[in-house]
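Subject: Predicted fold for Cryptochrome/photolyase family protein, 434 residues

User T.R. writes:
Posting the sequence so we have a shared reference for the thread.
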Amino acid sequence: MKDKVSVFWFRRDLRLTDNVGLYKALSSDYPVVPLFIFDKDILSKLPNPKDIRVDYIHQAIESLQEDLAKAGSSLHVSYGKVKGAFKDILDQYDVQAVFCNHDYEPQAIQRDKEIGEMLSKSEIAFHSFKDQVIFEKDDILKNDGKPYTVYTPYAKKWRAKLEQKHYTVAPTSREGFFQTAKKRIPSLKSMGFEKTTVDFNTPKLTPGMISDYDKHRDFPAEDRTTRLGVALRFGTISVRECVKTALKNNDTWLSELIWREFFMQILYHFPNVVDKSFKSQYDGIRWRNKEDEFKKWCKGETGYPIVDAGMRQLNESGFMHNRVRMVVASFLCKHLLIDWRWGEAYFAEKLLDYELSSNNGNWQWAAGCGCDAAPYFRIFNPDAQTKRFDKDLSYIKKWNPDYQKTVERPIVDHKEARERALKAYKKALDDARS
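User M.O. replies:
I've generated the structure tokens; pasting them so everyone works from the same file.
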């Protein structure tokens, strides 16, 4: 006789505390088998065996396993295709229900639909819950029932609708897990990956981390951002905890959390933004797309010190300060007239805190083609940005110490590039109108 169980499927919620779907599973009538799947369909598309995100997830899973062992249970970790992993679980247990938390990316929505249909054929319930955001899907709509496409009114309604219940902790228990010996986790090597420099530590958020966030967030040398983007991306920290702390300590940081949800609902309502401009008229831009110039941008060899420092920080650490992200993105799209999708894809490959909705939204913002984007004629001057936000060159000297001798002359002249970009953008918009 197989044991009757419920299954909780971990995805973007790699924690045992304040986890809505896990709380619901543990409140069910059956002991809970925790499941995590290293999805081959996703991992096979990652070109770098030293992918810091895979290493981060692997370490987070190992941490989860240790916590579950203390509760007398074990995480069931599979490496393969999702349907195959579920078939294995169904072979081992008499599964009564599967619980998880919502994912809002188009491919994930399709995956969940297929798994739900597969389970329904065996009369197994599939329950999914809101966990990684405060408001989702149709929670925040305009008065006419349509989704917001401008941040400021969206944020205003988000704040007006927020109540304490929205950020109240889901009181997840350590009881109710299926009791079993600790199971083996597939090694990085067995999945085709290698150890990196990343070290996973359970993320913590203290009031001191954000109390003066608004005063320091634009200065990359100070490194005074929270670095919690990756924790929110993989759910190693709860968004409810973040919102609760932000409400008490820093409104500017709360605004950043709202931006995250704004871009998530944009992706949900307008999934075509994954590979198309939100404002379709911008798809008519005649990009130059010079591969040699793109490679120099990637390597941090443009001759603009702050751009090169940012790209080198990204390549070496998997992180780039947000102010610098805006500068390097604007530089690629406007100065070099290279398609924003090229830059978005490069960030997707390199960023530890890569989040499809935010990465896409911010790249389209920088390119001027997204919802609520910077106007196309707003073109960051890298030198002016340096003087304003890194005037003593501390950030540049750290990440691009040989900035004075690496490139004798910049890849492009700012004034000439600006004029070229304005002409290209204006022509695309004029053509779209005619």
